[in-house]
Amino acid sequence: MKIKPCTKCHSKESVFYRPYSGERLCSNCFITSIKDKVQNAINVYGMLEHNNRIAIGVSGGKDSLTLLHVLKQIEDETHGSEIIAIFIDEGLEGYRNEAEKIVNQTCQDLKIELIKLSFKKLFNLTIDDFAKKNRKLSICSYCGVLRRRALNEGAKQVNADRLATGHNLDDMAQSALLNLLRGDLSKMQSLFPGGFYKKGFVRRIKPLCEVPEKETTFYSLLQNFEFQSYKCSYAHEAMRNDVRDWILEMEEKRPGTTHTIFQTSLKLIPKKIDKKQNICEKCSEPTSSNLCKVCQMIEDYFKINS
User: Residue 130 and residue 144: Cα distance in Å, rounded?
Assistant: First the structure.
């Protein structure tokens, strides 16, 4: 069977087909299209200005490595912003060894500053500690809250004014449905890819918000990235897995479903953003209640296991 030509340049054989748009792209046009998608998201959602100081959460996975490379290229060509990578060790035995080596080498190759933080140093607890004891929540719930705090702490330590994370289109759609299924529309505001200014928090942006996971994977393969191969041993506990499977099934049957879910979720973001803040009684970090989520989780951990 003859391979169809690239619908962009019309001169090379296509290597990737986008069912949701009908595009067939050669490797060069595909790579360029990912950069264009990121640049477009930055512009549409007002993510960046000239000479920002951008902290990027880099886990060693395909999404964060794609973001690191693409954003470095865009910033070198346009805004001239400085990029700093932040690597977090959650304390899952053996899980981050491979990733840390990959991130070290990548940052060295790209000449990007790298800082490393760990749950153990920040909270005096690891994810394995939570997993091995009695607990109320899934491991993913603990990890998500602690990781967000760790990334914000790292961004503050390097005086960043933006914190970029590797959330792709699939992640955004999954989060939107999870919020709906849990009846928590208040969390919809966190889906806005351009982020918000909030005292005590570095403005969080999501430049990969319009790039499907399949495309960050293919981008990584075309660029010959080495990325983490080990999966988290606790990932099976997450409700997100069920939502992911459903969205993938719908995307296969009805291309464009993932984009539609994401775009619809943006319309559900409250026009008035809740900026009410207190100060956590224990750690003095911003919170909407007397105790922040991190301190609540740690306090519950010791209560349950005392």
Answer: 13
